[in-house]
Amino acid sequence: MDLLLLDLVIVLAAARLLGAAARRIGQPPVVGEILAGILLGPTLLGPFLGDALFGPEMKPPLQALANVGLVLFMFVVGLELDQKLVRGKGRIAVTVALGSTVLPFVLGCGLALAIAGDHVGGEKTLSFVLFMGAAMAATAFPVLARILTDRGMQRITLGGLSLAAAAVIDVLAWTVLAVVVAIAGTGDAEGQWKVALALPYALVMFLVVRPLLARLVPAREKAGRLTPGLLSLVLIGLIGSAWATEWMHVHFIFGAFLFGAVMPREGAEQLIHEILERLEQLAVLLLLPMFFVVAGLNVNLRELDLSSLGTLAAILAVAIGGKLLGSYAAARTQGVPGRQSWALATLLNTRGLTEIVILTVGLQKGVLDNELYSLMVVMALVTTGMTGPLLRRIYPDRRIARDIAEAERAALGETAAHRVLAVVPAPPAGQGPLVDLASVLARAASPSEVALVHLRPYPNGRLEVGTGLSSELAEMAGTLQELETLAAGARARGSVARVVSRFAADVAAELPEVTAGARPDLLVLPADMPGHAAVRTAAECRVVTVLPPGRPDTADAGTAGAGTGPVAVHAGRGGSDAAVHVALVLALLDDRPLVVTGGGRTGALVRRLAGLGVAVTAGEVPPGALVVAPDTAAAPAGAHLLVRAEQDADPVDWAAAVAALRAVPAPATRS
Fold this sequence. Notes:
The chain is of the alpha/beta class.
């Protein structure tokens, strides 16, 4: 007994310390808890000290405590499984889930057939092959939910879609695992007929037990709280359900999960909250870490050799490649953009908790040997650990912040206008072409608005109350009148327009702050504007730089933009998607032909746009054309507009872009 208590102290302390360390470096705590078990086992402590602390006589009581924690955990998973997730996302979630399950399952079965001779006997081959497929296809729904919550992604479409898909994947994986356990656990006639009771048992749980459990809701409301008697009924039902499935030779995790799934949902929010509040503390703080540490104790990396490393490489390739490619391909078939598809695939590659549970079942049922179990645990750690860093690279925090802001506006019933911010230099009276350019670009989206920003420097010397101040205020009033005249021209082209003007002690220093505060979707500003470089660098949105007409190698961008000549765009360079899209907007909305010049993908792009009905050709820049180019290190000769893509830009969907531009109504008047 003294050794058991000492083991509990060591296990809990190691789990808490390494779990906290994992959290500090941006990893789920389960990664640290499994590592704690590996470090406490024979891998680090060796056979002597490891056996002295966690010898064969200590593992059964530790495993028993771990199994109790697993029962509570699987009940919590079933209880927290939001069945509305699948209904809310529908066809996309199911399609992504199938792609994320079928490809890794098939590849896992193929790998299992290749290595079965080294790890299992002939009578276990079928269950081993199916088990490896299920293990490769699993996604850790609880860990995924924790990752999304930590980043606030549960409030955006990508987060909801990944949770919905993971819920479907869980159902598919547990179904296959139930078949595997049934095959592996039926060695006699008695076992066979017990397994046949599993389906009727599930029907009884949904059709009989679920309505009975619904009576807990009025009982809790009558008592005003979750009484010990009500909690005892829940625990009795939970443990009884776990026992029943274990007796049927279907693992106890299914009974626990099923009991959580049939708990009442409608009007039971307070009841569920109080049950979770009571059980999660016991399960998450004490018993569940015990389960993961005990799982790690069974890992012995000392026994692995070079052939094991080859098997590990194959396991990682199948597990990661199958998940990423299957999820990505399925998402793309449903029209999910490329960046979001890769982010979704990365999220569904998370394994963690669910994978360790599956692997533990396989080890207990004799489907996995110790060597393969150790390799699969390493795979679970790698796939779980890579999710956070890879997701930050694919879908950075600033993208998530924009998505969250859009979701919050949608929740409030607000429709955010597409904002084009035009920085107007002095004197405003001569900037009509620049404002015309901004208003055309604004019409590409609906609803939209044009904001004209003008910063007027303070006069030299100190302002005094009196004539000097009155003179400056008069000049500011005149500037505002000129800006309002420009805004009227933008309104005539069909855009909502507003004016922002103020004094600035240092225009170059204050302009980045003003533009960032406006949070535009597109920024238009002259290249010779004070502070242009700082604004361009700091802006997260798309930036259109208007080159000055005084350059010997370019014409007046505004003059060219106001005409009817062609629009030419340089393609095949970095950021050219954004430049081509701006040129496409100007061409289609002003009824001008489009010429694509440059190398690389020019031909393919022209064929793509021509197939969508755009009047486009490939060739040299014609005389009198408005020339648009990507904003790269060196602007090409003759360019009028330089376009820098927004940060973390997605590739342009040309079919959708052309369709949206053709749907833009013509303005009532033209300036």
